[in-house]
Amino acid sequence: MHSDVIATEHAARLAAVDSLLPGSSPFEAAENAVVLEVAAGDSAASGLASRIQVDQDAPNAPWRALTEHRLDLQLAGPHPAAALDALLTRWDEHLRAVAERGDTETAAIVPRASRDAAGTREMLHHGFAPLRVIAVRPAERMVPAGPRGTPGVKIRRAEPGDLETVVSLGLELHSFDAQYGTVNLRQGVEDIMAKDLAEQLNRPEPPLWIAELYGRPLGMVNVQHPGETGWISDRVSADRVGYLSSLAVAKEARSSGVGTALATHAHHVLDEEGADVVLLHHAAANPLSTPFWYAQGYRPLWTYWQRRPAVR
């Protein structure tokens, strides 16, 4: 089956299950990326196998493996699960040639449309687990803001003097998420966060807000405005994309309304800027963030299946 046909059939199949998914074009090989194609009877699959190396001191390093082997895929034909199984087998052969066996700083990652159930069993059989989600909050599904304000909670824009607070909240969030397999606890995380957050706080209008509960700073939210989200905007069919980078609430303030107040404020900011959708990442197994975000009007858009290490 020709790559153009695979891409077209794949796009049509996904469009039928989720109108917010972007279209597909045939994969092209590039630096650090190869195209894998397989056939499985009357079905076929194409995959772009790439390798992403992350510098240990980069701002995003605390939230991912330092070496990511990624497979973007397209499935066509009446039996997409069989095509996916064949593609994963072919990718495993490729990984054994390029990835170091047993290295816990490597991860094999397969992004899949969350509503595309075909091949779920095959993903599990190849050792993958659904660990991370890109969730979307479409404008037409914005939930009502509810009562104006939360008793005892004041939201204000963060300033340079809040650095210690936001670093502490960021570290608490990182440590909690590390339980669910999406990040590694490693040395230097605090320094990386402090440098990145200090740069953000020194912007003329920092994209962070602090929640004070009866005068105590116990929560923060960090956003990226439309125009700053080119790195992720191709994951959704929308013109203006906002991104909620993180929301953290100190353990002692959970269930106090701080998180909901911060989310409502962030959505108000992005709504005023005309965002068609807001995206965010969350750990799929996190028992706090998953129900919280879906109560705020989000739903899964992409599920990132991961195997770590990449080759066992």
Describe the structure.
It is a single chain. By secondary structure, the chain is an alpha+beta fold. It has 2 domains: 3-132, no CATH class; 142-296, Aminopeptidase (3-Layer(aba) Sandwich). It has helices at 3-17, 80-98, 120-125, 163-177, 189-201, 258-272, 289-295, and strands spanning 33-40, 43-53, 67-76, 106-113, 129-138, 153-157, 208-213, 216-224, 241-249, 277-283, 299-307. It has an 11-stranded mixed sheet with strand order 1-2-3-4-11-5-10-9-8-7-6, sandwiched between helices. It is globular. The protein starts with a helix and ends in a 5-residue tail after the last strand. It comes from Amycolatopsis vastitatis. InterPro entries: Acyl_CoA_acyltransferase, Bact_Acetyltransf, GNAT_dom. Keywords: Acyltransferase, Transferase. It holds the Pfam family Acetyltransf_1. Residues 153-312 form the N-acetyltransferase domain.
Q: What's the order of the H and E elements?
A: HEEEHEHEEHHEEEHEHE
β-strand amount: 25-35%
| Low-pLDDT stretches | none
CATH architecture assignment of the largest domain: 3-Layer(aba) Sandwich
Shape: globular
* Radius of gyration over C-alpha positions, nearest whole angstrom: 20 Å
Keywords for this structure?
single chain, 312 residues, alpha+beta, Aminopeptidase, eleven-stranded mixed β-sheet, 11 strands, 29% strand, GNAT_dom, acyltransferase, acyltransferase activity, transferring groups other than amino-acyl groups, Acyl_CoA_acyltransferase
